[in-house]
């Protein structure tokens, strides 16, 4: 069971990374804990999503959307849950409980059963797949587009709280707005997955639509200081950015085939992580040298626009 082993071992790695975290919230994470946690998450997420693409051929977008709703649920529920755990069991005890929860990845990985497809022998081994993907023009353009989109995708989660406090919002109301974004994100993932299967034609068209709407909603944040307008934009951004995610992953099997999905998805996520890694520091630099967080939000929305043009 190659798929199950691939997901189970990183689950143990992820758990070990959380266990190695420092015993105080004021202490910086150790390099070992950061490496184990990041590696465990990456090596769990990629094979799991690739398995999902191989399991479903008719309702792949909906299955992907439902599988990714866990991100929205955790964003909504985990922050208050962790604060409650810290207040009851202290920082170290809360981390140990979270590491115990992460061990469920091992059991979930054991449920991923191998599936043989007719096109598997045709695509060759990992080296042959990698070589063919590096010479696959549409795949390379798709990877570049997703990297540009990823550069601006997470900016509201980094800067929106500070932007709201600059407008005079109290921290509790600002945190509530982020929870609204998380709930809207969850709904958007399910709706987008359903539309991806219900609407005829390539799923890439829906990806372009959701990318455009996400960029527009992000660009409007600096020009909407009223609380009602900000709430509306938060719901719109959460829905469209959540809707973007399942179709982004559903496009890949159509582009390269399910036989090369493991190698293709791993390569895409490796490259797109560069955009996610650079997005927050670049927006922080914009924040320091310009007129607060407004310019950095607009600049990151332009990054989504460049990704749309590349698509």
UniProtKB/TrEMBL annotation:
Gene Ontology CC entries for this record: membrane
Keywords for the protein's UniProt record, in alphabetical order: Membrane, Transmembrane, Transmembrane helix
Principal cellular location given in the protein's record: membrane
Protein location: Membrane
Record field: transmembrane: 64-85, 91-112, 139-160, 172-191, 203-223, 229-249
Record-annotated Major facilitator superfamily (MFS) profile domain positions: 130-311
Membrane topology category: Multi-pass membrane protein
GO molecular function: monocarboxylic acid transmembrane transporter activity
Pfam families to which the protein is assigned, alphabetical: MFS_1 (PF07690)
Annotated protein name in UniProt: Monocarboxylate transporter 13
Gene name linked to the record: MOT13
């Amino acid at each position: 069971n190659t798929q199950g082993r691939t997901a189970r071992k990183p689950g143990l790695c992820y758990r070990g990374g959380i266990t190695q975290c420092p015993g105080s919230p004021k202490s910086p994470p150790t390099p070992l804990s950061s490496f184990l946690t990041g590696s465990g998450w990456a090596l769990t997420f990629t094979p799991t999503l690739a398995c999902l693409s191989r399991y479903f051929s008719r309702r792949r977008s909906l299955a992907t959307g439902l599988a990714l709703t866990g991100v929205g649920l955790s964003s909504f529920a985990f922050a208050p849950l962790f604060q409650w755990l810290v207040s009851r069991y202290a920082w170290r005890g809360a981390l140990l409980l979270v590491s115990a929860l992460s061990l469920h990845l091992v059991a979930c990985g054991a449920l991923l059963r191998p599936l043989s497809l007719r096109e598997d022998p045709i695509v060759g081994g990992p080296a042959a797949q990698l070589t063919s993907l590096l010479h696959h023009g549409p795949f390379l353009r798709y990877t570049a587009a997703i990297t540009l989109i990823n550069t601006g995708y997470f900016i509201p989660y980094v800067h929106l709280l500070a932007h709201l406090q600059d407008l005079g919002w109290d921290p509790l109301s600002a945190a509530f707005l982020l929870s609204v974004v998380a709930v809207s994100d969850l709904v958007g993932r399910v709706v987008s997955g359903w539309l991806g299967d219900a609407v005829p034609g390539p799923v890439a068209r829906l990806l372009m639509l959701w990318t455009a709407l996400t960029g527009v909603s992000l660009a409007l944040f600096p020009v909407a200081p009223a609380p009602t307008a900000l709430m509306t934009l938060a719901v719109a951004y959460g829905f469209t950015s959540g809707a973007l995610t399942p179709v982004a992953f559903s496009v890949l099997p159509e582009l390269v085939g399910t036989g090369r999905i493991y190698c293709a998805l791993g390569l895409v996520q490796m490259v797109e992580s560069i955009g996610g890694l650079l997005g927050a520091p670049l927006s922080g630099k914009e924040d320091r040298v310009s007129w607060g967080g407004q310019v950095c939000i607009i600049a990151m929305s332009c990054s989504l626009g460049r990704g749309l043009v590349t698509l």
